[in-house]
Amino acid sequence: MGKHVLLADDDQLLASLLNFRLKKGGYEVHHSSNGREVKEYLTKQRPDIIVSDIMMPYFSGIELIDFVRNDLKLSTPIIIISSAGNEQNVLSAFELGANDFITKPVSPTELLVRVARELNK
Amino acid sequence: MSISKTKDLIGQLSNLERAVSEFSFEELSADDAKELQLSFNSFRNSIEHHIYTPKTGKKTNGSVIKNKEKEEIEKKLLNQNQFIAHVSHEIRTPLNSIIGFANLLKEENLNESQDKKVQAIQFASTSLLKIINEVLEYSKISSGNINFETIDFNLSSLINDVMFLCQTLMLDNNIKMIVDVDDDVPSNIKGDPTKLSQVLLNLLGNSIKFINKGFIKLSVSVKKEHKDHHELKFTVTDTGIGISKEKLKKVFKRYAQAEEDTAIKYGGTGLGLSITKEIVEKQKGSITIESKEGKGTIISFTIPYAVGNAKNIPLNLIESSNIENGKKLLAGTEILVFEDNLMNQHLIKEQLMKWDCKVHTHVNLNKGLAVLANKKIDLVLMDLKMPNINGFEMSNAIRQHKNAQINTVPIVAFSADFTEQDSKDCKDIGINDFLLKPYTLNELMTVILNNKREKTKRTTIKKMLEKQMIEPKETTKVDLNNLLSDCFGELDMLNELVKLFKLNALEFIGNVKMHLKTENLQEIALSAHKLKAGFAMLKANGMRQLIVDLEANSKAGNLEKVKNLYQMFLLDYPRLEENIDYHLTILNKK
Q: Where are residues bearing 4-aspartylphosphate located in the sequence (chain A) (predicted)?
C-alpha cells in the first residue's frame, strides 16, 4: 500500500494534474476541493501527508494548518501551495507549522520530490 | 443568520430553482446549459446544507454567572458572524457561475421562449446574489438593520421583470395576470429597486401560491403628490382562497413560530408577510391587508419615492430603451445577407426585420450582385465560412466590381471562428468589420450602425480596418509539450486537462462579464487570479501576461483598463483555443 496523500486544492485543473502524477508516483490520493470537506475528512482519516492550496473556499490553507496542529494535534507533514507574491501568507503558514511550500506555477515533478523528501524525514 | 435573511434566501432560491427547472435543457444541447444546471445543483446542495444543518452552539445557561454568560454570547455572536461570512462566500462562488453561464447562454441563438426563460434565470439569480451580498453586509454590521439603497430606477421595467418572473411561477394558464399603472405614476423613481421587487415578488408569489381561479392584479397609483416626492400606492388583488379572520390578525406578527414552519414547508416565495411589512416600513411606508375567506385578498402598501432621472440609470438597466433608440436609427436600412444555412438565414432575417430593416438573402453571387446594382443596399453581411460557397471570394468579387455603387458597399463578415490568416485575408480584400459568433443583439446592432453606408466614408473604412484587424499576436500562442511531458506523455490525461482548462476559461468570461456590469473589480481580480495557473500550464505566456495585467489593474481599480484588457482577451482567446486544438490534433495524430 502506497503512502496516503490528502490533496486540497480548489483549482480543478492543477488538482487533476497533481492527482494524476501522485497516483503515478505510487501514492494513494484523496482530493478535496474545499476546506469544509477537508476538515470533515481529517476527523475520520489520517493521511501520511497533506498538500494544500493556501487559497481555498470556506476554510483556507492557513486555517487548515491551525486545525491540524492545534485542534487535531497531529504532526502530519503539510506542504503548502502558494501564489507568487503571497510571501506573507507563506510566513504565517510556517509559523503555524507548515513543513514546506511550493509556488505556482507548480511543477508536478518538483512537488513529488518535495513530498518524498517530507515522507523520508 | 437572522430568520428574515434565511427566509429571504429560501424564497429567492425557490424562485431560481423554478426558473432553472422551467428551462427545458433538452431543448438546447448547448454546453452552457448543462454547465448552468450543474452549477445550480451544486449551489442548491451547498445552500441547503447551510440552512438546514443545525448550527452548533449551546444555549446560554441562566444559572451561570453574568461575566461568563456575556463571554459566551459574544463568542456565539462571533461564531455566527464568521459562519455567515463563510456561508456567503461559499454560496457566492457557485452562484457566480450560475449567473455567468446564464449570461453566456443568453447569447446563444435562443428562441423567444428560451430567451425569456434564461432572462428569468438571470433575474432570479441576480436577486439572490444581491440578497447574499446583503447578508454579508448584515454580518458586518450585525445590528439587524437592513441597508437601503437610494438610486434612480425605471419603475415599469422593474414591474415587467417582476411580472415575467411571476408568469413563470404560474402553473395554471387560466389565471389572468393584470398590471395597471396609472398615467401619472412617474416612469423613473428614486429608491431601492431590489427591495421593491422583493416586496412585490413576495406578495404576488403568495397570491400565485393560493389561487386556483380568477385573476391576480397589480395596480400602481399616486396616493399623494408632495413637493419633493410621490407617495406611490401598490395594490395586489387576487381571487385566491383568502385568509380567515383569526389568521388575518397574526399575518403581520413578527417571527411567529407558525409562520416559520409555513415558510419552510411551502418553500416557495413564502417569505412571511412580517418581513414584507418590515421592508416596507423601513422605507417610511405602510402596508394593509383585507381578506375574505374563499373570496380573495387585497394587500396595499405605500412607499414614498422621489422622482428619478433617467440620466442616472446605468445603461444596462435601460438597455431595452437603448435598443429602441438603435431601432429608430436602423429603420429602413437595406441589408443584403449572404448565408447558405437556411436556419441561420431565417434567424438573422427575423432579427433584422424586428428592427424594421429591409432584408435580402442570397447564396448566389450573380443574384447578389444584381441586388447590389438595383437597390440601394446599405450594408452586406457576409458569412465567411459557408460550407458550399467561399465568403472571401464573394467579398473579393464585390470589391473588384467595376460598378462604384457595388464596390463601395460596406461589408461586415461574420464567422464562428476567426484565425490570424482570416484577419489578414479580410484586410487584403477590404472587408470593413467582423462579428464573431455567437453575437448578442446589441453587438449586431452596433456593428450595423457603425458600418452602414451613410456613416461610412472611405477614410473611416481604412481606420476601422487598422483598428479592428490585428496582427499575429503573442497572446494567442500556446505550447502543450511541457504539459504533455508532465502527463508522462499520456494523451488522455492531456485531453482531459485541456477540457478542464477550456471550462475554466468559459467560466472566467461569464464571470468577468457579469462583474463588469456591477463594476465589482475585486471579484474580477479573483477570477483572473484563478485562471493564471492554467495559462502557465499551457505555456501561453502572452495570454498569461494579459491576465496578470488584468488582475493587477482590477486590484488597482482601473476600470477602463480592465475593460480594455477584457476586450482584448475576448478577441484573442478564441484564436488561442484554436491553437490549442490544432496542437492537440497534431499530438493526437502522432
A: 53
Q: How many angstroms separate the CA atoms of B260 and B482, rounded?
A: 58
Chain B residues closer than 8 Å to A11 by CB: 530, 533
By DSSP bridging, strand B230-238 and strand B215-225 are: antiparallel
Whether the CB of A58 is below 8 Å from some CB of chain B: the reply is yes
The pLDDT tens digits of the residues spanning B146-177 come to 567 788 888 987 887 777 667 655 655 578 88
Asked if B56 has any chain A CB less than 8 Å from its own CB, the reply is no
Which residues have CB under 8 Å from A73's CB, separation 6+?
Answer: none
What domains can be seen in chain A, in order of their start residue? 4-120 (3.40.50.2300)
Where along chain B do its domains lie? 1-143, 148-313, 320-468, 475-589
Is B93's Cβ below 8 Å from some Cβ in A?
yes
The span from the CA of B520 to the CA of B525, in Å, is 9
The CA distance from A7 to B166, in Å, is 45
Q: Are the beta carbons of A17 and B537 separated by less than 8 Å?
A: yes
Is B241 an interface residue toward A (CB < 8 Å)? no
Query: Each residue of B303-317: pLDDT tens digit?
Result: 999 988 877 765 443
CATH architecture for residues B320-468? 3-Layer(aba) Sandwich (3.40)
User: Are A13 and B534 within 8 A, CB to CB?
Assistant: yes
Q: Do B504 and A34 touch (CB under 8 A)?
A: no
CA distance A19 to A6: 10
CB contact, 8 Å: B420 with chain A? no
Q: State the Cα–Cα distance between residues B125 and B135, nearest whole angstrom.
A: 15
Q: Is the ipTM of this complex over 0.90?
A: no
